Design the sequence.
């Protein structure tokens, strides 16, 4: 179940990055437009953290 969630998360990250023209610059620009300025490493960490929370909420809704 956890491996399945990781595969979904990984595919979502790839799709998300591809949608933003692949790479960290467009992602950083995307966050900058919302008033959040991050370096490329921080941006990836934020995306991973948000995805982790979302996947966790989807697959383990009763554990917080």
Sequence:
């Amino acid at each position: 179940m956890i491996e399945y969630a990781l595969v979904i998360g990984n595919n979502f990250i790839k799709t998300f990055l591809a949608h933003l023209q692949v790479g960290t610059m467009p992602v950083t620009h995307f966050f900058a437009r919302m008033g959040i300025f991050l370096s490329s490493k921080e941006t990836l960490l934020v995306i991973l953290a948000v995805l982790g929370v979302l996947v966790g909420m989807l697959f383990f809704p009763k554990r917080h």
About this structure: The radius of gyration is 13 Å. DSSP finds three helices and no strands in the chain. The chain has a mean pLDDT of 68.
